[in-house]
Amino acid sequence: MAKPTEYVKHIESYVDSSSSPSQQAASVDALAILLKNDLLTLEALVRELDLYLTTTDSIIRSRGTLLLGELLTQLELKPLSDAAIHSLIGFLTERLEDWRALRGALVGCLALLRRKTDVGVVTENDAEAVMKSYMQYLQVQSMGQHDRKLCFELLECLLERYPNAVQPLGNELFYSICEGIDEEKDPQCLILAFHIVEVAAKLFPDPSGPFTSYAADIFEILGRYFPIHFTHPKSEDIGVSRDELSRALLLMQLIFCVFQLAFAATPLFEPFAIPLLLDKLSSSLPSAKVESFKYLGYCAPMYGSDRMAKHGGALWSSVKDVLYTSPQSALSVESESDGGMIFEESDIMVEALILLEGLIQQNSDLLLDMILGDEDINNFICSFPKPWDIHDTPLQLRQQLHSVGRLLAVSAKSSMASCNRVFEKFFPQMMEALGCSVGNHSDESFATEDRALSSRFNYVKGLQLLATFPRSFAPVSLLLFENILLKLVSAITSNFDKKFSWGLELKALVEIGLYIEGYQESEKAATFARIVVDKFVSWISSDEPAMPLSLKMQAICETGMTGISNMLRIVQGMEKAISAKFTQAYVDGNFESVELVIKVLECYSARVLPWFEMNGGSEEVAWNLAAIIWDKIDNSSSVNLTVQNYELLGAAMTAMKQAVRRCSQESQEKIVNRAFRVLSASTLFPLKDSPFATSLSNSEDSYLNHHVDRVSCRDEWIISLYASVVIALRPQTHVQNLKMVLQLFIMALTKGHIPSAQALGSLVNKLPSKTNERHLSQEYGVEEAIDVILTSSIWNFCQSNTLRKCSLFGGGNEIHNTKCLAGLNHTSVHISAIVGLAWIGKGLIMRGHEGIKDITMTFLGVLLENTNNGDFPESCDPIEGKEQEVIPLMKSAADAFHILLSDSEDCLNRNYHSVIRPLYKQRFYNSVMPLLLSSTRQSNSIITRSMLFRSFAHVISETPLSAMISEANKLIPLLLDSLSTLTEDVMHKDVIYNVILVLSAILMDKNGQVAVLENAQAIINQLIGLAAYPHMMVIRETAIQCLVAMSELPYARIYPSRTKVLQAISKALDDPKRAVRQEAVRCRQAWASIASRSLHF
Amino acid sequence: MTLGLINANPVVHAKKKRVARPLDDPHADDAVDPLEIYDIVRDIRDPEHPYSLEQLSVLSEESITVDEKLGRILITFTPTIQHCSMATVIGLCLREKLKDCFPAHFKVDIKVAPGSHADEEAVNKQLNDKERVAAALENPNLRQLVTECLYSSEL
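The joint structure predicted for all components is written out below.
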């Protein structure tokens, strides 16, 4: 037991009003610990407190009572005897009378009343006494905020925990509640007050009980707070931290909730609440309207359908007012394309619709009667001009239309029955507005009647709607469905000259098809396939209808894309068409057939094959296409060469590549073998029984002599298609007779046959590199293939050729050299050879193969060799120093670098399964740059230099900037050199443009700034020159843009050039091209303003 | 300078949309046309108000004529009020801007629209007199005003 001296000092310290709040709190805690640990009994304490509790000094008395209250709060979990509780609550109840010491009494009562049952609670009798005392003595609204809050808490606690004790008090209780909460303004007290109302209302649900007589009064108090507005303090107001603001918001939300709960607490409020809310709906304040709708929606289920039924008419008219009479919806931005019918509804409309939905669910008969019976709505729908045009409709009418639509949608959505009712009532009228009458379709003479465009639009839309109606609701019989499809098909057949409506009709058909596919309606699917798909397929190879082929194909493809079964039908049709017409097209060059086959093949490459890939179809379609083409080629003997034939060949090659690349390895092997059989049967292989494949180096020359001029058109077809197959193969696919194939391609490429060169590139790109990786039956790895390719004599013209240096060449080839090229146009063969070599090099460079070095050296050799000793020395062999022949050759060698590095659409990309080593461009850049640089330095011939710079330009324009920017310092002088060299010849203009783009990229890059600064003068001088480049407008434009960028550099660096730039620009102001003039104005302004605002210089 | 504003409440019109010229036509006739000139001068700021000449309807595309072969440009502008003493400043701005943006061989004539100014003849004479223009631009105050109108970013 603690000695009295121990705790008395705590008591004194608490009661002493001069001690600080923290001291007081510490004393309470100390006393509570003593009590909790039973070192001090409550009786002893109360006895000790006696004087403080009863003294006439009101300040000390209030402190004493508060101490007791605080201690009781802390002892909430300590078991106390019933007697102790009884005497304490009795004492505190009495003290409620003493307004000076009220707070302590309130805190104490609250603490005792809140005790849990297992630690001893206040009896109901005592609680009733507390309630009575409360009602008798407490004038809540005359107290301070904190005391009011305590009072409300006490009342709330009594109502919630001692309902039996307070219930008998009835009317007096409500009187006291009304009196207490009237005029309350503090948010925290309001939460409690609203909650009290809710609890009290729940406590007296009986309509004949005491609550009924006070409901009006209580609601009057409550209704004043509606709608709750929260004007939160602005953030710039001093002293409002983010924390406080968020706490305030939280509090506000709490008030919203509690208030809503109180509002809807009892159906007894209904006679007061609904009129109030309806009244607020007529307010001009939008937020009040929104709130009213929200509350109505919330209260309706609480008050029950019987009570709400009374207000049905008023509710409907208010909803109608908002939705129909003055709809506030804004045309949404993207709705222009859709005839301006997509609206963004205002908050009010959204809430009104939610309310309507709730009301219909509660009492659908009543509401639907009102909606469907509403004269305005009926008149609105009936009075719609038929047929009407959405584009002629004024905005307000469109808004109304949208609202009515939403309204009906909400009505129909709530239940099956209501849906039926809405449809019975309005569907026929609406369909009529769209221009089709439901009952009577066959009368419509749709195709012949020349309706206005918009009404056609509506009509088509209507048909589409009807056709896509779910079967379970089936207002449309299968017969009718057929009719609809027939109508649309006949419309498409006859209306192809009206582009817009044709598109609409096709779209409607596609939508119907998609819908059928989505809902798995097998009957309709069969009908659709029969009427639409088969009909369209039959168009492919007939002249009927007389619409353009491209439209036919569009219609066919789009309907096919609705589903796999339709697509397969269409593919069948297209396969048949190719089978039927291909020979005709390709042998006779029959114009119509050629056009048709080209279109079908294009359709395959662009739509059908990608569609199957996307939708997980089998590779069968791709495989079939390839097989058909090869069959056809195999079976025909000769071909007429016409211009269209080349187009056809192009389309066939693309289709072949697209088909083969989608096949699996096995199918690809089958295709490539089939293709090889055709190839080996062609006239390309007259020596197929000779030792062609084995003793190559001797036979090849004569072979070339024989055939290089006589490749027939059919052979060109075969080899082109074979090349297409090879280009699209997967790396794993094995190619038979590789050596022969390689020889063949080499032969073809000397004739300038690019696909062969690309195929060679693809082969060396994909062949396995090491023996152990190799397929068992694979004869060749990449090394062997390269050997075969590079030992071919066609490269011999490069006399000091590095291929030879690298000992890939045997000696003594010069003899053949002159022979094999005799009688040919040397230069053109050489150029073809260089282009071919470039494609092969591209294949190697992408996989990162070492062989690219030799090829690069060959190109450099060509560039350097011809002009090594002065410009055009007599000794140059085999070309005897003729400029006309040397320059194209050198140009092609320079352009080979472009082929090496640029990305190609036709081959050697990811689509065609190429092997691509990461950063291969960067690697090549790093290895080739020193070579190019040293060559440029050594060469003293103008032409060689310019060609070397051309190569350099190709390399830098294809290499990613990030790889070069770190060496910008070295690169920029070279760039400028190349620009000044290249400007001397018009043929380099495209290359100059690429170089200047690289330069501008460096100027824009942050990492290039230092290098740019160091070379500022030189760059500016070069750009000034280019600003007057006469042959290409974009070069001038870009040069001037670069000059603008240069003006951003530090003042000291560029000021010396200012006058020069301004003079040059004033000439550009007179440029014949407007774009250049405009850039010049900008540039002049930028440069003039670096010194002053004046343009004088 | 002036104590009050000469035209305190000018009528402000909306800016018209810039007409984007079709791109990528290498054979397009790219001769200087009124629109090109208008695009250059429409954004000159009014000496008095933070609005462009376009917004105040001082200029329009129709009020500009150009003959490229003869190298002549004629701009007719309409001051906002009859007694506008700023008319000469606007004219000076136009002349300066065109001098900056077009090659020197163009002869530029600047006039106020007939009947739009009380001293029409005097203003026209002043604006097309080389000596007087040069003299005006040597006046530092005027020079500053012109520069501000041409390169102001207040719009």
